[in-house]
User: Fold this.
Amino acid sequence: MAVGLVSCSSSKSSEAKRPKELYMESVLFEKARNHCERFHDSWYVLSAKHGLLEPDGSKIEPYDLALSDLDAEERRKWGSEVVTELRQQNVTDDRLVIHAGKDYYEPLLEALGEVEYEIPTEGLRYGESLAWYNEQIEDL
Assistant:
């Protein structure tokens, strides 16, 4: 089973929305979300402010926080808390597919331990990541 983890985005709706809708102002979030909905068994949103969010969870207000705004210790704490939430969701026995940049996946990797994961867009720039998602759809 594959579980997608999609990072939040600085581009957000101006009003409260469910997590899967709040970040749709971002083309990259939209592509990652669509990819997860098509290719993964389930998926979650990684929020700098709220941690792990269920896509269809309660509406949340827009906020202005990125993991790059936090110091190293705060990022480690965030990663540890998200992994705890993943364990509570019983998905750490599954393969985690992380659709996020380095600021988001590094704190997770420190806390994941032996959990199986992949980062399909690791090392890709923004435009290259968009192209990767487009290619996945074209290959169907």
